[in-house]
Every structure is written in structure tokens, then in C-alpha cells.
């Protein structure tokens, strides 16, 4: 199984139970995360020992992946785009600004290596209209064409 998400925590809040069940049943699950969630909000106290929000959220994702039983976490290396209308949308490295064909090709390369029987991502509206979630849906769909 291959799961394509936008940020650390997306693997847990929507489909975590499903992923844990299938991992428990012996399905090898790989997760592709487009960003490290750099724009998320975190209490300053929780940043102790981490150089950035992205580093903390990557650590949290790797911990969640262990608990859920995921085989491997892969990162695409884009920057969190923030919520619709935020200044972060215009950052040149924001996931929503990445060339669609370039992102789809990165995902397609991983799909050819992993050879999943099933691929999961967000619905067309990204759950709650988050721009990065919508982009993850579009990029995974594009990687199949």
C-alpha cells in the first residue's frame, strides 16, 4: 500500500486506524509526505530539542509511523503552503507552487519502485479545502496517467 499525504499528522487524523489495521494484517505500507509541516503551529515548549517546527513534525511523523506499523516514510521535500489565503501560499518552495508534472513524476518513480496494490490519498477537496491536501490528491492522480 502507498499513502500520499501533504503534512506530518495527515497519516493519523484521517486514516490512521485503517493504516494500523492493514499493517497489523501484514500489508507493507509506504507513506509519501510532500512537506515537513513547517507552517504548523506548535507551543514553544514543544520545540525544545528541535531546530524548527519542520524538524519536530518530521520526528512526530516518524514516531506515528512506528506506532501505526508503516514500513517506510518518504519525503518529497516541498515546503508547507499554509492555509488558503495565507502569505505562505506564495513561498516559492510551497507544495502548491511546485510544477505538477515534476511532483507527479517523483511520486510515479516511487510507485514503480514500491509497486503498491493500493494507493490512498485525500479526496478531491482535501478533506477541508487545505491547498496542500488538494495538491496531494491531484499529484497522485496525475502520477497514474
Structural descriptors:
4 strands, four-stranded parallel β-sheet, alpha/beta, 13% strand, 145 residues
Structure description:
The protein is of the alpha/beta class and 145 residues long. It has helices at 10-13, 16-24, 53-68, 100-114, 126-129, 131-144, and strands at residues 2-5, 30-35, 72-78, 119-120. The protein has a four-stranded parallel beta sheet with strand order 3-2-1-4, with helices on both faces. Helix 3 links the parallel strand 2 (30-35) and strand 3 (72-78). Helix 4 (100-114) packs across helix 6. It is globular. The chain starts with a strand and ends with a helix.
- Which whole number gives the mean pLDDT? 94
Q: In oligomeric terms, what are we looking at? A: single chain
- Principal-axes geometry comes out as globular
Give Rg in angstroms: 15 Å
Helix fraction? 40-55%
Distance between the termini: 18 Å
Amino acid at each position: 500500500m502507498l499513502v500520499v499525504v501533504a503534512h506530518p499528522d495527515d497519516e493519523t487524523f484521517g486514516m490512521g486506524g485503517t493504516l494500523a489495521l492493514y499493517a497489523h494484517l501484514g500489508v507493507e505500507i509506504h507513506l509519501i509526505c510532500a512537506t515537513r509541516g513547517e507552517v504548523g503551529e506548535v507551543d514553544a515548549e514543544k520545540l525544545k530539542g528541535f531546530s524548527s517546527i519542520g524538524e519536530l513534525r518530521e520526528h512526530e511523523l516518524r514516531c506515528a509511523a512506528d506506532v501505526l506499523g508503516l514500513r517506510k516514510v518518504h519525503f518529497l521535500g516541498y515546503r508547507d503552503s499554509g492555509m488558503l489565503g495565507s502569505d505562505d501560499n506564495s513561498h516559492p518552495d510551497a507544495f502548491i507552487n511546485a510544477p505538477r508534472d515534476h511532483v507527479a513524476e517523483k511520486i510515479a518513480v516511487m510507485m514503480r519502485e514500491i509497486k503498491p496494490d493500493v494507493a490512498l490519498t485525500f479526496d478531491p477537496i482535501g478533506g477541508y479545502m487545505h491547498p496542500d491536501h488538494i495538491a496531494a490528491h491531484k499529484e497522485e492522480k496525475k502520477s497514474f496517467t
